[in-house]
Write a structure and sequence with these properties.
317 residues; Beta-galactosidase, Chain A, domain 5
């Protein structure tokens, strides 16, 4: 086992009228988010891996850093496995960021990419919204060279307990399942199939299943929604609240869903992780050599600086 020092760094706490969270230097990722509903209930909407704090896993450099400390929300530039960057989800995902400025309720972070990458630097501005159960984010990308960059956001929401209800509300034109078998021997969705709603996802064995039903089984799935208008509500009816994600649909015209319901058994997963990635994305997946690969993205020119803003909030269901 290759060993390296623990990477998350010292968490920076943020607190405001309706919530609290931590920002970790690794990936400038938001973790341990807690938000307050109007009735006073506290909700922790983001998933966190059960192996966080396991010293042996944290020191195992054979596992990507973001998987050793999986959970919360971060930015992926470039998203997925891309020719623009050998690191899955980009250099900024697996490396520490520098704190530029902070207040009690927020902070600005920056990471400089190696000289051989088309991305020069990223900046993230994260802050709790006074008077609201919400967090506002701004992401800025500076390009070093011309490149087409698949860019995405990566919040991982908690899943209800098996059997619990889960609904996706929002406008979109259609959905498509992952173009290849997402997790061989585990995934149940039929690859490369079009669908109209997350309550009728096509199964490889025939028939359909809802997202909530799949979340109650040991599986790993991915599908993408197209024509999204920049707002989605993930509703937990049994818990009486919804997570609302808001973004600019011109910046992220699709949304990738990653359902991880204990279906991965390799280290560090061990069948233990449960979470729902709801990931606004400028890219799509296509089949190549029997696998699903990332395609397209945001076209950037050398010297260009691009920024986008988005929000994560909770509200009564």
């Amino acid at each position: 086992m290759s060993v390296e020092p623990d990477l998350p760094g010292t968490p920076l706490p943020i607190v405001w009228s309706h919530g609290s969270a931590e920002i970790w230097p690794l990936g400038a990722a938001l973790h341990d988010l807690e938000l307050r509903l109007p009735d006073g209930r506290l909700v922790r909407p983001l998933a966190e891996a059960p192996w966080q704090g396991d010293a042996e896993i944290a020191a195992d450099a054979t596992i990507p850093a973001h998987l050793r400390h999986l959970g919360g929300e971060w930015a992926c530039v470039p998203f997925g496995r891309s020719a623009a960057d050998p690191v899955t989800h980009g250099f900024g995902t697996d490396n520490p960021w520098r704190l530029l400025r902070n207040t009690r309720h927020g902070a600005i972070w920056e990471v400089v990419y190696p000289a051989d990458r088309p991305v020069e630097r990223l900046r993230r501005d994260i802050g709790g919204v006074h008077g609201h159960a919400a967090v506002d984010f701004a992401l800025t990308v500076a390009a070093r060279r011309d490149a087409t960059l698949p860019v995405g956001l990566h919040p991982i929401l908690r899943l209800p307990e098996p059997g619990g209800r889960l609904e996706v509300q929002g406008r979109y034109s259609h959905g498509e399942t992952f173009p290849a078998v997402f997790e061989p021997g585990v995934s149940r969705l039929a690859p490369a199939r079009r669908f109209t709603g997350t309550d009728a996802l096509p199964l490889a064995a025939g028939g359909e299943s809802s997202l909530a039903a799949l979340a109650g089984e040991a599986t790993e799935e991915a599908f993408q929604l197209f024509g999204v208008d920049g707002q989605l509500r993930i509703v937990y009816p049994d818990d009486g609240y919804a997570v609302k994600l808001t973004w600019d649909p011109q910046d992220f015209p699709t949304c990738l869903f990653w359902l991880s319901a204990g279906g991965r058994s390799a280290r560090p997963w061990g069948g233990r992780f449960r979470g729902l990635g709801v990931e606004p994305l400028d890219a799509r997946f296509e089949a190549r050599d029997g696998a699903g690969v990332i395609a397209g993205g945001r076209r950037m020119r050398a010297g260009e600086v691009w920024s986008t803003k988005y929000r994560i909030a909770i509200e009564p269901a």
